[in-house]
Amino acid sequence: MLDTPSKLAFARPKDDGTFEDGPYMVATDTSGDVNLKLAFLDETGAARTDGYLKIEGAICEQPRVIELGASAGSYSLTQGIIYYITSSSYGGTLTLPLAASNLGKTPIVIYNRSGATYTGLALSGSDTVEGSSGSPGTDILDGDTLVFRALKAGDWRIGAFDTNLGISRLTATTNLVENSPYNIFANTDSVAVTVNLPAAPSSGAMFRIVNTGTSGNNVTVAADAGDDLLGTTGGTFTLLDGETLIIAFQATDGWY
Predict the structure, then answer these.
(1) Across-strand partners of 147?
(2) Which of 20, 136, 144, 219 is a good FRET partner for 153, with 20 to 30 A between their CA atoms?
(3) Residue 126 three-state SS
(4) In terms of C-beta distances under 8 Å and separation of at least 24 residues, what long-range contacts does 34-40 make, across chains too?
(5) For domain 167-255, is the CATH number 3.90.1010?
């Protein structure tokens, strides 16, 4: 191994469309796969015949977006793709794949900006959405973005994000549901607020709850009577002005 690092160069195009001469990395294909030939130079410009190559960096894949206009067809939904409904006349069926084959994979996203409610979501096999079979009961309202995750075999779970980027502002006692926005801003300037956590959600449910008040009123975070909160069945947790609680649910341990 040499004491000084080797140089890895890329061929630069010239004004006439050709490439500079030299043992560089060159790719001239304009379609299909690109085959690259590597040549390494040492500090004197001679070709390297030993040593090692260290590559640092990141490979990023931009999410694919499929626009669903009036004439678009039906789709079997695929992880990592955003399905963007743009027309109120879109009548295709969007079918979720089997959850058992997609556990832990990238979620499926449906983004509705059509001006109308979309009702054409379908399931595969005997799968459910949020525990409901048959018609999944997941109408996608105009302006909604639904994120579908396969957390266990046979059932899809939904995270809903509204136009305020997943923030819900509360000024009174509220019962959360599993697909409530992640960020819960409880303003207590007028009155104390109780935030009731959903009962027996799926493992992985998570909320960030903030007391945004400045008047000395508390936020009480309360678990369902059958769920543990920080080790106490049916427990509560108090947030003073400006305090934040980030909490997640696991089926055996409860909320922590």
Answers:
(1) 109, 159
(2) 144
(3) coil
(4) 38/8, 40/6, 40/7, 40/8
(5) no
